[in-house]
Amino acid sequence: MENTKHFDNLIVGAGLSGISAAHYLQKRSPHRSFAILERRADIGGTWDLFKYPGIRSDSDMHTLGFAFKPWVGAKAIADGPDIMAYLHETVDELALREQIAFHRSVLSADYDSARAIWTLAIQNGITSQTETWTCNFLHLCSGYYDYDEGHTPSFDGQDKFKGQIVHQQFWPQDLDYAGKRVVVIGSGATAITVVPAMAETAGHVVMLQRTPSYVVKLEAKDAFANRLRKWLPGKLAYALTRWRNVLANLVSYRLARRYPERAKKFLLKEMRKHLPREIVTQHFTPSYDPWDQRVCVVPDGDLFTAIREKRASVVSDHIAHFTEDGIMLASGEMLHADIIVLATGLKLNVFGGAKLSRDGKPIVSGDLMTYKGMMFGGVPNLAVTTGYTNSSWTLKADLVSEYIGRLMTYMDKRQYVECAPMLNDPNMDRENAINFTSGYVQRASHFLPKQGSRWPWKLAQNYALDIRQLRFGKLDDGVMQFRQRAELTEAVTKEKQAKQSVA
After folding, report:
1. How far is 71 from 65, CA to CA, in rounded Å?
2. pLDDT of amino acid 105
3. Is the CB of residue 3 less than 8 Å from the CB of residue 68?
4. How far apart are CA 198 and CA 207, in angstroms?
5. pTM
6. pLDDT attached to residue 1
7. Membrane: is it a keyword of this entry (predicted)?
């Protein structure tokens, strides 16, 4: 691709969201030109970034997979390499590879109100040159993780440790932990994945946590889905499994939020089927309610098995300081280690780290109000894909992509060049868009966009409701404002005249 290009649509990110966006744009608006900008050397996003042992989905692949591309793997909780193979197969089937510009990082994007065009400054990772690309509509599909930096707390005496310290996000592929003593700091999804995987060959693995997480066993293979595929056409079997899992998750989530004490008792009772009561009480009984933070999935109970077989253990304590050969805890206990893994969480960013502006004026992410969970009040021709926090990411990504494809067709038929949702109620209550108490969310709350107190400014976190609103709801809903080229020119002219009269 040449250094300077113009497209009707630019999609940033070639992970699950970006691939979905490209598919629905092709399907709904095949006449529009588009390209996908990907900063890495391969597709996959998160699945290409994380390489730690045991990397796997934390949602079932019948909902994490695309609506338009059935998952046919035997495992519903799939390993990272299998997910990457699925994504590559999808890209090839859609003939998208030629549309992807790899090694392209978006540094900034400025919207020109007079021309209704975004101008992007893009870093070419191979030549190190800055390129200029333009588009009419910008769709950011790069997620909200900072790929360059994870959350890395500073521990007292860390430089004294003579062993190896590894962060979950930057895993050395040549790490040899066979027979070694390993301490994994953390209790989230990454920790409960890494611990049993490393425990297969390590001497012993300790999961060191400050506070427990809710952990639930889930069968890696979905027997229902595998049976259906034997008797029904693949697409029908996939659709039925997908909806079964969607509804099961929706019902369980709603019940957990409405009856938190009952949900807590149920989860703890389930864990006691796999671990001694004292271990569950001490290390797997959080103080918060279920879904205040994400509930962690243990496929086939591998973590529980590793603990029962004493290949792994859990310690709940605070770190006093590192020593030459391990970690001294606040309780006075010493954890000896050859390798320390920091599964300490992720660092969030917005817009994939790009700086956004309108007519040269910075767009401040923390001041924005999200519209239908994908656009922002007062910001034209921009969409951002963010998945569900209580269900599979791709469920929402597919709906957003489908909506954007439909929106483009609607605008083209009416010769609109600009669309922007407008918030006409300055007194609307503002809330955090992600209502989690997790540390990585709380650390980023000041710069994350907000949500309002009612639709379309409030997030539903409900796939069934979003289908009704996003797939079948009106595009011209009284909130979204559209402009044709002539209207845009007239508005810019009036604004210039007003400035001149004031001067």
Report:
1. 6
2. 95
3. no
4. 11
5. 0.91
6. 43
7. no
Q: Rounded to the nearest 5°, which phi and psi values hold at 441?
A: -80, -45
What is the SS3 string spanning 277-332? HHHHHHHCCCCCCCCCCCCEEEECCHHHHHHHCCCEEEEECCEEEEECCEEEECCC
User: Which tokens belong to 54?
Assistant: 């045991």
Q: Shortest CA distance to 121 belongs to which of 140, 136, 106? A: 106
Task: Provide the pLDDT for residue 301.
Answer: 92
Q: Which residues make Cβ contacts (< 8 Å) with residue 288, sequence separation at least 6?
A: 437
Distance between CA atoms of 489 and 474, rounded to whole angstroms?
27
Residue 143, sorted as left (phi over 0), alpha (psi -120 to 50) or beta, turns out to be left
Task: Provide DSSP, 401-458.
Answer: HHHHHHHHHHHHHTTEEEEEE----TT---EESS----HHHHTTTTTS-EE-SSTTSS
Domains and CATH numbers, the chain: 5-147+348-498 (3.50.50.60), 158-342 (3.50.50.60)
In this prediction, the residues of the chain whose per-residue pLDDT falls under 70 are 1-3, 434-445, 447, 492, 495-503
pLDDT per residue as tens digits for the range 470-503: 999 999 999 999 999 888 877 767 766 666 666 5
**Mean pLDDT, rounded, of the chain:** 90
